Amino acid sequence: MGGRSLKLLYAFLTLLLHLKPALGFTSGGSIPDAFGNMNSLKNLDLDDNQLEECVPKFFGNMSDFSYLSIRNNKLSGQLSELIHHLSGSPVQFLSLDGNQLKGSVPKSIGNLSMLWSLCLGSNLLEGEISAQLFSNLSGLEELSLSHNSLTLRLSNDWVPPFQLLTIDLSSCNLGPDFPKWLNTQLLIYFLDISRNGISDAIPSWFWNRGYFYIANPSGFIGNLALCGPPLTPKCLGDAEPNAESPKVGSKNNQEDGDEFLKCLYIGMGLGFMVGFWGVCGSLMLNRSWRHLYFRATSNLNDWLHVAMIVNIARLQRMFQG
């Protein structure tokens, strides 16, 4: 293979890695050193590859990283070392779940101000995490610190700078009080705070936030003194539910549902009439518009066909040369 072909192949692989993040290796061992030469690499997915080395130093050369996922491998070493290598990158997605990274979660992770997903679950991390670590992560939407030996030291009056969609803090130490900062998170649809050492009652405001998936009791297990719905243990002073309560207002609810369906069907019918006849009716009644429409469609089809043939021929000439 000639020198030009090698350059073209290298450029093609670089482009592929730039556009398609899921490109894995199954050989195990270490991450290939060739990645260290791809300075413009933006997205890298090396999940489930049995990688066993320490944190690669060449990550420090990746100044454009925005997506990095190396979950379910055997990477070892200090998490702080990896974060140091990424300090100059605009990382938005960082997933290191299921490795053997050690040490504490460094405060320097707060310098990755563009992060919207931070997943560090199932490692060997330990130590305390304070509110200072999150002070610059205003765009964070996904946070997973589960199955480590971490303690979150967050005051009751702490107001996070972000709005999280998913929170997985299973096996982290949050207790003994129920984390009141969750009252500020209005967009959560998944929450796991199981085995957190919480010995408090689930507050009433918790069920007025519009949550979806968190009603599953499995997200609360392992907190022996935690009480209140949806858990079986009831808090002292909780009244027994009234068996007749579901019937109250049932007739009004049914009438409201019927009225909603009626409005929905009327809206669908009007939308169909306006959308369909507004376009098709105009083409049927106006001959000049109809001719222009079909001529434009035919010209577009011809242009796409010619462009495809020209580009295929150009690629063939490049690789044959």
UniProtKB/TrEMBL annotation:
Pfam families assigned to the protein according to its UniProt record, in alphabetical order: LRR_1 (PF00560)
Gene3D superfamilies tied to this protein: Ribonuclease Inhibitor
PANTHER family referenced in this protein's UniProt entry, alphabetically: LRR RECEPTOR-LIKE KINASE, LRR RECEPTOR-LIKE SERINE_THREONINE-PROTEIN KINASE FLS2
Keywords: Glycoprotein, Membrane, Receptor, Signal, Transmembrane, Transmembrane helix
Name of this protein: Uncharacterized protein
Signal peptide: 1-24
Annotated TM spans: 264-285
Organism: Castanea mollissima (Chinese chestnut)
